[in-house]
Design a protein that fits this description.
- The chain is an all-alpha fold.
- It has helices at about 10-15, 20-30, 30-40.
- Helix 2 (about 20-30) packs antiparallel against helix 3.
- The mean pLDDT is about 85.
């Protein structure tokens, strides 16, 4: 039997880069997940020159 770790909202808010959008929605809800996810990825990467 496969062990499934249940994440808490605090887990997601403390280190959000380790979660997919789907995992965020399942734990914290769609509106909060959308806001958090877009704040993480709304800026395009900067070019290294």
């Amino acid at each position: 039997m496969k062990y499934l770790h249940r994440h808490t909202p605090d887990d997601i808010r403390s280190v959000p880069y380790g979660f997919t959008y789907k995992e965020m929605v399942e734990v914290i809800g769609e509106s909060e997940a959308r806001s958090l996810y877009s704040s993480l990825y709304k800026h395009s990467p900067k070019k290294n020159t």
